[in-house]
Design a protein that fits this description.
Strand order of the largest sheet: 5-4-1-8-9-10-11-12-13
Shape: globular
Strand content: 15-25%
CATH topology: UDP-N-acetylmuramoyl-L-alanine:D-glutamate ligase
Structural class: alpha/beta
Distance between the termini: 22 Å
Number of domains: 1
CATH architecture: 3-Layer(aba) Sandwich
Number of helices: 10
C-alpha cells in the first residue's frame, strides 16, 4: 500500500436539493449524502468511491463535478426515471428546518451493487439509507477494516430492530443529539451515548450542531467544540461533510482509537465549517487543502492541541 493514495467506499444518495433561507435560495443544487461526503473526503487526500443511483434526468456536468475532485463513480448507476430530489426551508437563525418536499424517484428502489473491486474496499461509510440496505452492503464487502454508519430518526422510529441488528457489525456510528436521545432512550447525551455503545458500535461521533461533538471511544468521552462560523449560508450538508472529513482522516490513519478519532473529528469540524459557507456543495468545491490547515491551526492552538507536522 506504500505510496498509494488511500480510498474508501461511500454508499448513499446523489440528489438534487432545493434550499430556501431568509438570505439565499438555491434550486437544483447538487446534493445528497454521498455528494457532500465525497467533496469533503476528497479534501483529506483520499479517493471517495461512490455507490449510488441517479435518474436519467441527472446532469452529466454534475457527475463531472464529483469526478473533478477525484471521486470514483464506477458504482453510480443511472436508472430510467427521476432523480432523488429534496427541498427544505430554514428559519432566520437556522435553528429549525421544514421539509418542503421529498421526491425519492429512482432512489426509492435503490439496491446497492458493488461492481468491480468495490467490495475489496477496507474503509466503508454507510450513509443514511435503510438499515436493511446497510446490512446488505456489509455482507457484500470482503472483510472491511473500518465501517462507519449514519442514521436518522425515521429508521430509529420505524425500523429499530433492523438498525440494532447492524450496529454490532460497525466500528463507528455518526448520530446527532436528537437521534441519540431517541436511540439511547435518555435525555442526557452522555448517558444516551453510553447506552448506544452497549448496542454494539465501538465508537460514536455524537454531533451537537453549533455546540460541537462528543466522541465516545475506548471507554473515553472526548468533547470538542464546533468551529465558530461567521458566514452560515446552508447547513444542509454539514453532517455528511463532517463525516467525510472524519472518515478520510481515519482511512489515512489506518486505525480507530481515541487519538486518531480526535484528530479526525477536528478535521471533520474544519471541513463542516467550510461546507456551510456555500449553497449545496459549493462551500467545499474548489477549496484548497491549505484552507483547512489555516482554519484548524489556530483552532487547535486554542484547544491546546499541537498540530502534527
Amino acid at each position: 500500500m506504500s505510496g498509494m493514495q488511500p480510498s474508501l467506499l461511500v454508499v448513499g444518495s446523489v440528489a438534487y436539493d432545493t434550499v430556501r433561507t431568509a438570505y439565499e435560495t438555491g434550486e437544483g443544487l447538487l446534493g445528497g449524502s454521498a455528494s457532500h461526503f465525497s467533496f469533503s473526503a476528497a479534501l483529506t487526500g483520499v479517493i471517495p468511491r461512490l455507490v449510488a443511483v441517479v435518474g436519467d434526468d441527472f446532469s452529466a456536468d454534475d457527475l463531472a463535478r464529483l469526478e473533478a475532485v477525484g471521486a470514483d463513480l464506477a458504482g453510480v448507476a443511472r436508472m430510467s426515471g427521476a432523480s432523488f430530489r429534496w427541498g427544505g426551508e430554514y428559519n432566520a437563525d437556522f435553528s429549525e428546518r421544514e421539509t418542503l418536499f421529498t421526491e425519492l424517484g429512482v432512489f426509492e428502489n435503490f439496491e446497492p451493487v458493488l461492481p468491480g473491486d468495490l467490495a475489496q474496499e477496507k474503509v466503508v461509510f454507510l450513509a443514511n439509507i435503510h438499515p436493511v440496505l446497510q446490512g446488505q452492503v456489509l455482507e457484500a464487502v470482503d472483510s472491511p477494516s473500518l465501517v462507519a454508519l449514519d442514521t436518522m430518526n425515521l429508521w430509529i422510529n420505524i425500523t429499530p430492530d433492523e438498525l440494532k441488528a447492524v450496529l454490532p457489525n460497525i466500528d463507528l456510528l455518526f448520530i446527532n443529539d436528537e437521534e441519540a436521545r431517541l436511540l439511547g432512550e435518555h435525555h442526557n447525551l452522555v448517558c444516551a451515548g453510553e447506552e448506544i455503545i452497549k448496542l454494539g458500535p465501538k465508537a460514536i461521533c455524537l454531533k451537537k450542531g453549533e455546540h460541537g461533538v462528543l466522541l465516545f471511544v475506548d471507554g473515553e468521552i472526548i468533547p470538542l467544540p464546533a468551529y465558530p462560523v461567521r458566514k452560515l449560508v446552508d447547513p444542509t450538508g454539514a453532517g455528511d461533510s463532517f463525516a467525510g472529513g472524519v472518515m478520510g482522516e481515519l482511512a489515512k490513519a489506518g486505525t480507530l482509537n481515541a487519538e486518531s478519532l480526535r484528530e479526525a473529528a477536528l478535521a471533520g469540524t474544519g471541513l463542516g465549517s467550510l461546507a456551510v459557507e456555500g449553497l449545496g456543495v459549493t462551500g467545499l468545491e474548489g477549496r484548497k487543502v491549505e484552507e483547512i490547515t489555516d482554519r484548524l491551526s489556530p483552532f487547535k492552538e486554542l484547544l491546546g492541541i499541537s498540530s502534527k507536522a
